[in-house]
From TrEMBL:
Protein name per Swiss-Prot or TrEMBL: Transcription initiation factor IIF subunit beta
Region annotation (Disordered) ranges: 1-20, 301-327
Keyword annotations from UniProtKB, A to Z: DNA-binding, Nucleus, Transcription, Transcription regulation
Residue stretches making up the TFIIF beta subunit HTH domain: 254-300
Domain TFIIF beta subunit N-terminal, chain residue ranges per copy: 44-189
CDD domains for the chain: TFIIF_beta
Species whose genome carries this gene: Parascedosporium putredinis
GO MF annotations, alphabetized: DNA binding
Gene3D superfamilies: Winged helix-like DNA-binding domain superfamily/Winged helix DNA-binding domain
Family: Belongs to the TFIIF beta subunit family.
UniProt cross-references to PANTHER family, sorted A to Z: GENERAL TRANSCRIPTION FACTOR IIF SUBUNIT 2
């Protein structure tokens, strides 16, 4: 039995018909947005909101058009003569999900954000039309087998339980929707209001807590006359071994992302107006040089406050920091 030789196809010959998977497969080309004066997708805003606020927004209906609040933007003149943009957000009080979060927020603007893009996906045209026909048939009460073309029955391979089952993914078309040019750090205006709401949520969590039994052990009965009952007092009190002093380990800190560090710094200054560098380093557990570099962007050095966090009155002026008026 001789093998059939493989004949190379001629350049002018018609190609073989495409498989269905190849027909609806994405070519891999990434589309970019069109930056025009009327299409401002090249200067998007990325807002970092508190976790409680994001949780309340996630409970809203996605399909309903709801006005969650209003934004106010103005410009303040800096000492060097430049105009600094300022923004503030006020939430609507008639929404039930806003009753457990502060209503007024300051938005600290950071410009010059690089390498941040927003992507979007949509169904491929061929797959979308095919799916729409099935949806219309289902809505009209027609069985789906009418839309399927009759094909010759082929012998299917036996099902192997060791072979994992997977469902074919819906082919998508990826596109860059826009570029992020500004970051907004969201912080409540009134720290006392936020502290009061957090205390109310903590109290509610304690009231709704239930008793949980970690382990069940049956009691032991000492019978009179047994050897175990005779020497019960010898093992009643056991001397604890002297604890060994642990060796001092040099504290090593790992840098976290700068955006996450900014969020933690804003949370600290929402609790107290003044912080010493020593207290911030103990609170955030970050290297001093990295902490100073980040503080220069959102905080300014100030005089020693009488109600400083660490209560130390002999702290140097350059070690005491205060949040800017934006917070």
């Amino acid at each position: 039995m001789s093998d059939q030789p493989v004949v190379k196809a001629e350049p002018g010959a018609s190609p073989l018909p495409m498989d269905e998977d190849d027909l609806y497969e994405d070519a891999g080309d990434l589309e970019f947005f069109e930056s025009t004066p009327t299409n401002q997708v090249g200067s998007l805003y990325l807002a970092r909101v508190p976790k409680a606020l994001w949780k309340s927004w996630s409970e809203l209906d996605d399909d309903a058009e709801i006005q969650i609040g209003t934004l106010r933007q103005w410009y303040d003149s800096a000492p060097d003569g430049t105009m600094k943009p300022r923004m503030k957000m006020l939430l609507n009080s008639d929404i039930a999900q806003h009753q457990t979060v502060p209503r007024e927020y300051n938005l600290d603007i950071t410009s010059g954000v690089d390498h941040h893009f927003v992507f979007t996906e949509e169904d491929l045209p061929g797959y979308k039309a095919k799916s729409k026909a099935r949806t219309d048939a289902s809505n009209n009460g027609l069985p789906l087998h009418i839309l399927r073309a009759r094909a010759e029955k082929v012998e299917k391979p036996k099902w192997d339980k060791n072979k994992p089952y997977y469902r074919k993914a819906i082919p998508k078309k990826t596109k860059i929707y826009g570029k992020i040019a500004y970051e907004l750090n969201c912080a409540p205006v009134h720290a006392e209001e936020q502290r009061h709401l957090l205390q109310a949520q903590t109290s509610e969590a304690f009231r709704s807590g239930k008793l949980q039994i970690l382990d069940r052990r049956n009691g032991q009965i000492l019978l009179t006359g047994t050897g175990r009952a005779a020497d019960w007092d010898s093992n009643f009190i056991k001397s604890q071994p002297k604890p060994t002093k642990a060796k001092k380990v040099e504290m090593k800190t790992i840098r976290i992302p700068e955006s996450e560090l900014m969020d933690k710094i804003i949370q600290c200054f929402s609790r107290f107006q003044y912080w010493s560098l020593k207290s911030l380093r103990a609170e955030l557990k970050q290297p001093e040089a990295y902490l100073r570099q980040t503080l220069e962007k959102i905080a300014t050095p100030g005089d020693v406050a009488p109600d400083a966090v660490d209560g130390d009155s002999d702290v140097e002026d350059d070690d005491e920091v205060k949040m800017e008026d934006a917070l």
